[in-house]
Design goal:
With 149 residues, this protein is α+β, with helices and mostly antiparallel strands. The protein has one domain: Lipocalin (Beta Barrel), CATH 2.40.128. 35% of the residues lie in helices and 46% in strands. The chain contains 2 helices and 8 strands. The protein has helices at 2-31, 49-70, and strands at 33-46, 74-77, 82-86, 92-100, 103-106, 109-116, 120-131, 136-148. The longest helix is centred in the N-terminal third of the chain and has 30 residues, at 2-31. It is globular, with a radius of gyration of 20 Å. The N and C termini lie far apart (56 Å).
Amino acid sequence: MKKAFKILTLFVAIASMACVTSCTKDKEDLIVGKWKFYKADVSITLDDPEMQAIMDQYLAVEVEELNAEMQNDQLEFRGDHTCVNIDEDGESEPGTWSINGDQLTVDGELITIKSLTKKSLVLEMVEAYEDEEDEMTGTWVFTIEYKRM
């Protein structure tokens, strides 16, 4: 019985590793290409409910401006694990990328892949938010969506 359990455990471990490796490879193949900015969203959830409404109003304006500024941005992931971000002025910024499961690393910055299809890429970054001057803390979430070019 112990031998059967060991074999089963080993099989599950190998199958899990194969799935993670193949899923990562599929995502690597899928992400390669040129992507055009589609939309971004920023939210901050504050620990202070009284300040939340003020923050929501402020962010609504900021997100609208951010979307207008980024409307011509492009992102290209290349098969050699280099990438380039092209901003609205046509200026490019080179970098490197890698994928491990749902985690995309671009120049050392960890980004979660919320969804990735042949036509759409949605990325998300979550960080702690702290404003020492106004003594506010919370969670900052930045979501950005690209469409394949």
